[in-house]
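Appendix B. Raw example, untouched.
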Amino acid sequence: MIARYSPPDIAAIWSEEAKMQRWLEIELAAVEARVKLGEVPEQDFAVIKKKARFEVERILEIEKTTKHDVIAFLTNVAEHVGAESRHIHQGMTSSDVLDTALSMQMRDAGNIILADIERLIKVLAKRAKAFKYTLQIGRTHGVHAEPITFGLKLALWYEEMKRNRERLKRAIDVISVGKISGAVGTYEHLSPKVEEYVCKKLGLKPDAISTQIVQRDRHAEYLCTLAVIASSIEKFSVECRHLQRTEVLEAEEFFSEGQKGSSAMPHKRNPITFERLSGLARVIRANALAGLENVALWHERDISHSSVERVVMPDSTIALCYIIRQFSDAVEKLLVYPERMFKNFDSSYGLISSQSIMLALTAKGLTREVAYKLVQRNAMQCWREKVHLKTLVLNDADIRAHLSEKEVEQLFSAEALMKKLKKNVDYIFRRVGLGK
């Protein structure tokens, strides 16, 4: 088993207390920058640092009158600081604080999700190696195709999550910008050096150019990245749901002692976790669309994006964190049934060898069209009559004119199949970084 994971609370990032604490950090850093520029006396800054604090309840009370959250915040801080509070927020606009703080929140939430992805990658790697050579039928359109292994399926998810990890790193980098550039982004009443100082102190980059706000294409890219990751989790979950169908039952969600699957049917063991993850992925994708709608704002800024982000940013990051953690746990405890995989593999009467026969015939000099026709007519008879394809091929004079009995037997040999499959599985595992 993978070592137990004690995840941080991503919801705490989005609390009012945490948000306003970031506001205060930004305001204090801006004053400190102006001290270094000789614009604020050091003794005044000492008073501000010592006295600056806030109470969420008091801010909410003031906001009932001001109808403006940042003004309410500044009023509350000023109540504690006194006359020296005149240096706070000087030359700044509300979005300097709001957008810089939001970038910090998105960055910090993204880093928690990154850690969760790292854990999932490790879980998938461990289980992929465990089932590296577990024979399973590959299905296209839900119909038997050619052999794979269950380890290959898990390795595919492993590689996809590695791509998601890189996507999220890029999205975090894109959003890790701040702006302290004033009402329309022109630094009319403060030096750009203040912005440089604040951003460096907070672990952000200064936005190269802004209006009153950081441009929302950054936020849209971040939300779309979360949606892509959620879509991957749904993709994996849908596959697990398919594999748990009674007619398939090659893998099954863990069913704990005392768990019940239905109020009506005591026998039920349903893939409820994977279904829940599929549902939440839809919410995250819908939120990404809201983020795209936020890109187009009036002139240098309007406020239509703000109310949206107060919902979609916490909801999307918390939901994605949840579904990654839930999926990691579910895969770690997934019940896998190799015997059922082999039974299902063997249930299509050898049809999975159809391409091997066709290629063997073309190697003997037949055109692809002729070879295809010869094999297909036997395959269709196999479907209709439920007779093993090998039996039909051995009795087909047109095919036997080109392939000996020994050659046909070899084409259907399980040992020959596994020998070739193992070699190719080893190659793929090495390519994705799961083997030597």
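End of appendix B.
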